[in-house]
Structures are given as structure tokens and as C-alpha cells.
Amino acid sequence: MKRADVTGGTGIALAVGRVVASHGRQLVVEDPAGQRTPCRLHGRRLAAVCGDEARWGYAHPGESYGTVYELLPRRNTLERLTQGGRAEPVVANLTQLVAVAAPLPAPDWFVVDRYLAGAAWCSVTALIAYNKVELGVAADAAVELAAYAALGLAIVQCSTRAAPGILELATHLKGAVSVLVGQSGTGKSSLLNALAPEARAVTQEISAATEEGRHTTTHAVLHRLVSGGDLIDSPGVRDYAPPVPEARHVASGFVEIHRAAATCRFQDCLHVQEPGCAVRAAVASGQIRQRRYESFRRLLTLSRELGERFPDRRPGRSRR
Ligand SMILES: Nc1nc2c(ncn2[C@@H]2O[C@H](COP(=O)(O)OP(=O)(O)O)[C@@H](O)[C@H]2O)c(=O)[nH]1
Ligand SMILES: [Mg+2]
Ligand SMILES: [Zn+2]
Questions:
Q1: Is residue 91 pLDDT above 80, yes or no?
Q2: What CA–CA distance (Å, rounded) separates 148 from 129?
């Protein structure tokens, strides 16, 4: 197809591809057949992240790298909260987030809630992978996992030291574009290596393509799984903190709170001290777990703090 308008009148034929690795202005773009080409961004205004769909072509015949001229609209963007309180895109066009927890390090369920809320805020499905299960599942962890399952979340108990859980996880990743997130040390890198044994080599190859041989692990890389589906790996994604939206949208990150909120007396109820609050009634009756409500309250407080510290911050969005 001719897109002379976006190439400054050079009339270069552009193809649509997907950004499968991104490091600053250097990218790797994959065509629908799976062929990967190193690319650079055209112009200063473009900023691509892993998962972006792009129009690209060769600026000059015979060049060894392509040029990305245009990015297509994103279906969703996983964002990270920066020090300055802003939302920074990390990955685009994701369909699933896998929150990884394990017996060791001791799970922080508030962190898990935060990731699950982050998934809901960018409209992707979430599941929990409880890794290292060969170490045993403590009673309190079993209670938390059962509570998440009751909310409709898929829970996969797995171990990188045994096949069955990994195979079950692979089944959940089929047909999806996923990321692994969670506390450091829960086994995300080990899971990636178990799911995509070639991941290490691919990452090194991409390091070479985008940086002429300097090996770093700062890239976001999309791995195609042999068992089906794509898995995006990036240190920035794994340790990301989801941006918290405006106070009135925080509840949309908590499925049971969002559901109960439909019957609050006031439509703009924040579920803190308003009369006729169905959420607080459900907490009092035990229908909503106290810990989950506490988790919601923490994010609500954070949202207000961010609003005060950064009054001009971009408002959070909710698509529920
Ligand atoms: N016992 C046990 N240890 C594991 C398992 N998976 C990973 N580990 C170990 O947990 C530690 C952290 O793993 P890593 O993949 O680096 O975690 P990450 O920080 O989440 O990427 C390493 O010492 C791994 O060998 C597992 O299923 N069982
Ligand atoms: Mg790791
Ligand atoms: Zn309410």
C-alpha cells in the first residue's frame, strides 16, 4: 500500500506489524508471518512500546533496518506510575495479566490486589499463578486463594520444578497476550524460562539487534509461546505500580465492590462514610471481605494523595 503522505512524499510501501521489542527509539517489528525486523522510529514525536501495532517500511532500498512511521491506536495500555505521579505506558494491546505470588517470599495480598485492580483499570483479564506450590500452601494462603476464586478469578497452582502446573498455566496463556507481574522472587523469570525456553536466547539476539551487542535486561520483549499465545517480559512491567485513577473510579478495580456499589443510595458514593452505602453494608455482613475493603481504602487514599500532590495529573480512566 502506498502511504506517501506519512513518508514525506517518498512513496514508500508500508506494512503493518507489531512491536515485539522496544528499547528507547530502537524496536523490533514482527510481520504477521512472524518475521522480525530491527526498526527505528521516524521523528521525535513517536513513542512506541512493546505490543504496539505500527506501519513501517524501508526508508531506503537495501537498508538493514526498517523505519516505523506511524503507530496504530492502542486497544489498551498498561501504565506505570512514575515518581512524578504520571502514567507512563509500558505495554500496549495486552489481553491478560498474570499476578504471580508464592509461599516465598511471603505473599503480600495487598500487592496482588493492586495488580488485579491495575488489570481491571486497563480492561484486561487477570489470573493468579501461585508458584512454588511444592513448598506447600499455608492455611492463610489457601483462604486468600479460595476468596479470589470465589470472585471468579482463575487460580493456577504451579511449580517450576514440576510439569502439571506449568502445563495448566500454558493453557491459560493460549490465545492471549499476557504479562507476568508480582513481587520480586516469586519466580516470574523461572516461569518465563519454563514456558519459553528460547526466551533467553531471543532476548540476547534482540539486544544485539537493537543495541549492537550491549546486553541489558531493560528491554520489553514479546515472546511467542510454542504452546500458543504471547508472553511479554520486561523488568518495567514486572515491577510496575499501576496508576490509580480518580477516587470515583477506584472501586472499578475491585469486582465485588464495583458490583455492590450499584445499589448504594448515592451514585457518586465513595463507600467511605456515605449513608445508604451498600458496600459498607456488605463488608459489615461479611459478604465482602474486610481485607479487600481495606485494600480498596488504601488505593482510595493513594488516589486522593496523588490528586493533591499533582492536581494537573492526567485523570485515570475506567472502562467498566
Ligand atoms: N522452590 C521453588 N523455587 C522456585 C520456583 N520457581 C522459582 N524458584 C526460585 O525462586 C527464586 C526467584 O526466582 P525468579 O524466577 O528469579 O523470580 P522473579 O524475581 O519473580 O523473576 C530463584 O531462586 C528460583 O530458583 C519453584 O517453583 N519452586
Ligand atoms: Mg526475574
Ligand atoms: Zn457506597
A1: yes
A2: 12
DSSP-derived letter for residue 83 is: T
What single string gives the DSSP state of each residue in 128-183?
Answer: EEE--GGG---HHHHHHHHHHHHTT-EEEE-BTTBHHHHHHHHHHHTT-EEEEEES
For a ligand 1 pocket test, name from 156, 159, 160 the mutation site with the most ligand atoms within 8 angstroms of its C-beta: 160
Query: Where does 247-309 sit in CATH, by number?
Result: 1.10.40.50
**Ligand 1 lined by 185 (C-beta under 6 Å):** yes
- 119 alpha carbon – ligand 3 mean position (Å): 22
- Residue with CA at minimum distance from ligand 1 atom 2: 132
- pLDDT, tens digit (0-9, with 9 covering 90-100), for 271-281: 999 999 999 99
CATH classification code of 77-238: 3.40.50.300
Q: Is the pLDDT score of 310 beyond 80?
A: no
Q: What is the pLDDT of residues 34-58, one digit of tens each?
A: 999 999 999 889 999 999 999 999 9
C-alpha dihedral (166, 134, 108, 90), degrees to nearest 10:
-20
Fold for domain 4-71?
OB fold (Dihydrolipoamide Acetyltransferase, E2P) (2.40.50)
Residue closest by Cα to atom 9 of ligand 1: 187
Mutate to test the pocket of ligand 1, among 133, 135, 190, 191 (most ligand atoms within 8 A of CB): 190
Closest CA to 210 of 21, 64, 59, 47: 21
pTM: 0.89
What is the chain's mean pLDDT, rounded? 88
CATH 3.40.50.300 spans which residues of the chain? 77-238
